[in-house]
Design a protein that fits this description.
EC number (chain A): 6.3.5.-
Keywords (chain A): ATP-binding, Ligase, Nucleotide-binding, Protein biosynthesis, Transferase
Oligomer: heterodimer
CATH architecture of chain B: Alpha-Beta Complex
Distance between the termini of chain A: 32 Å
Strand content of chain B: 5-15%
Protein name (chain A): Aspartyl/glutamyl-tRNA(Asn/Gln) amidotransferase subunit C
Organism (chain A): Thermoflavifilum thermophilum
CATH class of chain B: Alpha Beta
Shape of chain A: flat
CATH topology of one domain in chain A: Histone, subunit A
Helix content of chain B: 25-40%
Family (chain A): Belongs to the GatC family.
Strand order of the largest sheet of chain A: 1-2
Number of helices of chain A: 3
Largest interface: A-B, 56 and 69 residues
Distance between the termini of chain B: 32 Å
Number of strands of chain B: 11
Number of domains of chain B: 1
CATH class of one domain in chain A: Mainly Alpha
Amino acid sequence: MEISDDLIRRLCDLARLNYDEAEAASLKKDLQRMIAFIEKLNEVDTTGVEPLIFLTDHLHPLREDSVSSDLPREQALELAPDRNGSFFQVPPLKTA
Amino acid sequence: MSVFRNVQEYHAHLLVGDVTCEQVVSAYLDRIALHKHLNAFIHLYAEEALHRARAIDARIQRERTLKRLTGVVFGIKDVIAYAHHPLTAASRMLKDFRSVYSATAVERLLQEEAIIIGSLNCDEFAMGSSTENSWFGPTLHPLNPDYVPGGSSGGSAAAVSADLCMLALGSDTGGSVRQPADFCGIIGLKPTYGRISRHGLIAYASSFDQIGIFGKDIADVATTLEVIAGPDEFDSTASPLPVESYQPVNNPEPPSMKLAYMKEALDHPSLDREMKSNIEKLIDWLIQKGHIVDAVHFNYLDVIAPAYYVLTTAEASANLARYDGVRYGYRASTEEGASLDICYQKTRSEGFGKEVKRRILLGTYVLSEGYYDAYYTKAQQVRRLVAEEAYRILHEYTCLLMPTFPTTAFRLGENMDDPVKMYLGDLYTVFANLAGLPAISIPLFRHSNGLPFGLQLVAGRFQEKKLLETAAYLLSHGSTI
C-alpha cells in the first residue's frame, strides 16, 4: 500500500515522536518497505485460527496480597530529570 | 596467565590454591585493555571486580569451599539490570541511568559468587542484528574488525569469543543470542520462554524476550542455566517447573537419536551454498553413526519473519511508551512555556535512535485503528499455526537442525541502508521465539572465507536437557565431522 505523508504524521503523533520534514522522505521509504514485507502474511489462510497470545501455561498465578516497599521514594526520585520536593516536575500540561 | 578452558578446570586450580580469583580478574582486565578497539564493553567495573575477587579469595582461604560459580568472570548485556550500576540499553535515552535493583538472573549469579566485570554493548534496546545501532558506537568482530559481531548481543559474543570474560548474559527476542554466537564462533543458548525470569531485563517484546547465555564450554553454559533458571515472584511468566540438572552426560556413542531438518530451510535461496553443503555433510555423518535424520516440511518459513516483526514492533511500541522523560532517563531541553506534549516528543525524538523509532512507528501502525485485525490479529493467528506445527514436529523428533543465519558475519555498514534486508536474515532464528522453544547455536564450522559459523538446534518446550546433550555430542565430535 501507498504510505502518505498524512499517515506518517498521524503515526508520529500517536507515538509522541516529532514529524521531521527532513527525515520524512527516508522514513516513508523505510516504512513502505517494512509494510510491504509484513504484507506477506496475507498469503497464509488463517480462517478459523484462534490468535496465539500467551506463551505460558500458567496464567495469572496468585500470591498473598501483602504490603511491601521495594523502592523508597527518595531513591526513585534521584533518577528524575526534574523534581519539586517529593514530586516529579514536568512542563505545564497544555496543548501546543 | 592464560585463561582456563572451563569452570571445572578453573575451580580445580582454585581449590589447590595455585591460582586466585584476583589473578584471574587481572588477567581478564589485561585482555580487555588489549582489545579496547573491539568496543565490546560499555562500562567496565575493574576496581570493583578486583575488590570482590579479593573478598572471595579470602573466603576460600578460610572455608576451602566453592560455590557453583565462585570467581567466574561474567559480562552482562547492557539491557540487564545490576543494582547501582549503569543500565543504558545502548541508548541515549538511558545513557546516564543507573538501576536501583538487579535482575533476578544477576542476583542469582552473584549468590553463587560470580564476578561481574562490566556491561556489554548491544543494539539500542536490543533492536538489530549487528550491534551497529548503539549510542556508544559499533562493536567489531573479534576475528576481523571490518565485520560485525552480529547482534543484538554483539558485545556479549565478541567479549566471550575474545576471552574478555568467561561467560556472558545476553537477551534473545528473535535471535539476538544465537546469531552473534554463530558469527563469533561460540555457544549461544536461548532457553524456553519463561525458563529464566525476565525481571530486570529491559522489555522489548514481552511475549518473546528471554535471557540467554554465551560461553565456550557446554557444561559451563549448563551450570549457568541451572543457576539462573526457575520461578520468580517478580515475573509471573517465569515457569514454576523445577530446574533440573542440565549437565550433558559425556557419551561419545549415544543411543540412536531421532532428529529432523526442515527441507525448506536448507533449500532456501538466501542460504550460502558452502554453509548448506557443510550442514548436509553433518546430516550424512549423523546417519552413518546410526541416527535418524528426517527431512520434514515446514510451510511457513517465508512468513515467520513478517509475523515476528508485526508482533514484536507492536509490543515494542507499547513497552517503549514508558520513556517519556518524566520519571527517569533523558529529557530534552524545551523552550520556556513549551507544553508537556512538546517535551515528550522532543525527548523521544532525541533520545531514541533511527531503528528504534522505525520499529515504534511500525508497531504503532499495526496496532492503529483500521489496521489492527489485518496485521496484529493476523500475525497472532500465524503464530499459532507456526507454534502448533513446531510442537507437532518436536513431539516426534528430539531436535530440529538448522542454520543459525543464512551467511557468515557481514561487513560493517553492509546492511544499514535497508531495514528489510537486515530483517530477512532472521528467518532461521525467529522460529524458536515465535513458538517459545529452547534453541542453541554451536560453533561447528569454518567457512572458506575464514569466518566461523554454527549449527542451530531447536528442541521442544523445556527440553533444555536434551538440547544441551545433543549439542554436547556434536561439539565433542566437532573436528571429525
